[in-house]
Amino acid sequence: MDEIFATKNRKRLVLKPGKERVVANRHPWIFGGAIGSESGQADAAIADLVDTKGTLLASGFYSPRSEIRLRALTFGDEELTAELISKRVAAAIARRRPLLGGRTNALRLINAEGDDLSGLVVDLYNDVAVAEVANAGVERIKDVILDGIRLELKPRLIYLSNDLPARGLEGLPTEPQAIGEGEPATTIVENGLRFEVDPASGQKTGFFLDQRDNRALTQSLASGRRMLNLFSYTGAFGVYAAAGGATFVENVDGSNIAIESARRNHELNGTSNLARFVVADAFGHVRQLSASGERFGLIVCDPPAFARRRVDVDRAARGYKDINLYAMRLLEREGFMLTFSCSGHMSLDLFQKVIFAAALDAGRRVSFVRRLTAGADHPVSIYCPEGEYLKGFLLEVLE
Ligand code: SAH
Fold first, then answer.
1. Atom of ligand 1 nearest to the CA of 231
2. 3-state secondary structure at position 317
3. For a substitution probing ligand 1, which of 208, 213, 231, 255 has the most ligand atoms within 8 Å of its CB?
4. Is pLDDT above 80 for 80?
């Protein structure tokens, strides 16, 4: 492994004059457009970025095909070694130890830039670690990372999901790989509640860990209320609401597989008797509920990212407004709603405006009670604010 990090095996990238600000801001993404010339090994995992005088500016993971040519891990003359990466893996896990225990055994272990490991995400699901390697450089040194995880946590299985679109663009294999024993499916405990997670068939790495704290908030608000869980996926918010004393929970998702899993998760927690499971398009379903006069005291609206690209933002804003408007109409007076956007391109400011417009059109008086974001196991690098994709509000409908 040390060979891969040896200077002779690194790529050498020369920064274009005038692009110094790119490095001064310590943003880890160095785009191809900022690079004047490249030399060295074609299949290098690691690259050094230098100025025209040859002074070392940054080192990191190299990708010949990605727009992000270099994912910087160190700046200035700090030396990039396998040992440094091992230390960062160990530090990321150590930072989360206080969150892990009998009540919660699933969380994000490594959050890319937020843990100074751009290009890498690792989630822990009880005895299974699921890694998403998004970059050619990370792929070549991944054994350093997997060894670190094994040493710290001894998982039964490490599952490399490999289905990221970015891997196709990078020319990396997209077949999943399982290293260890048994199947990737497992049962996790989160805040004392149990969920089945199947990294092989689920969305993303299998479960939306970023919502853990918001699910706990949902539980604390649920007592005595009828709850509507829009875009429920495997029913996690609904299970929490039921545990918090909701009188009825309706989980709605477009995916039959997700809804079947939601049913099993309610069964696992002994709450399927008060839950309903609906496979439907949420946009149509809220209209139907509205027409039939149904009302709820608590609604969670957690749709998929409507804006995956910047050009989609306008269309996405219309989608968010539509679903939120109808959801607000379904709320009882003094009802609560947790509403989210996980589109990176949708700013907090714009999302707030969308909610405002939805409230106006719904004819409801709404107050912003709290801003919501991802949990502490999803740290965001101040140099890479793009890492903060999840935004939400706790709303109260007053009238
Ligand atoms: N709230 C969930 C995560 C939601 S992920 C949790 O905490 O686990 C988004 C979900 O929206 C996916 O399960 C997807 O199947 C579903 N979905 C996407 N488009 C939809 C639509 N138009 N109507 C209903 N569900 C949809």
1. 11
2. helix
3. 231
4. yes
Entry pTM: 0.95
Per the DSSP assignment, residues forming a β-bridge with 368 are 395
Task: Name the residue among 66, 192, 199 with its Cα closest to residue 121.
Answer: 199
From 190, 191, 219, 253, give the residue whose CB has the most ligand 1 atoms within 8 Å, as the site to mutate: 253
Separation of CA 277 and ligand 1 centre (Å): 13
pLDDT tens per residue, range 286-320: 999 999 999 999 999 999 999 888 888 999 999 99
From the CB of 255, is ligand 1 less than 6 Å away?
yes
Query: What does the pLDDT average to over 273-297?
Result: 98
Q: In what order do the strands lie in the sheet with 46-50?
A: 29-31, 68-75, 56-62, 46-50, 11-15, 35-40
Looking at residues 165-191, what average pLDDT do you find? 95
Neighbour count for residue 180 (Cβ, 10 Å):
15
Given a contact cutoff of 8 angstroms between Cβ atoms, the answer to whether 74 and 58 are in contact is yes
At 324, the pLDDT band (50, 70, 90 cuts) reads very high
Which amino acid type is present at position 396?
Answer: E
Query: Cα–Cα distance between 299 and 293 in angstroms, integer?
Result: 15
Smallest CA separation from ligand 1 atom 21, residue: 281
Structure-block tokens of residue 60: 């990191």
Distance (angstroms) between ligand 1 centre and the Cα of 206 equals: 13
pLDDT per position as a tens digit, 24-34: 999 999 999 99
Backbone φ and ψ for 181, nearest 5 degrees, come out as -115, 145
In the reported structure, the alpha carbon of residue 135 is separated from the centroid of ligand 1 by a whole-number distance in angstroms of 27
Mean pLDDT of 230-241: 98
DSSP assignment, residue 64? S
Query: What atom of ligand 1 comes closest to residue 304's alpha carbon?
Result: 9
CA of 278 to the centre of ligand 1 (A): 12
- State what percent of residues in the chain have pLDDT above 90: 92
- Distance from Cα 116 to the centre of ligand 1, integer Å: 30
Q: What is the mean pLDDT of the chain?
A: 96
Would you say the CB of residue 284 lies under 6 angstroms from ligand 1?
A: no
Which residues lie below 8 Å from residue 189, measured CB to CB, with a gap of 6+? 102, 103, 104, 105, 106, 126
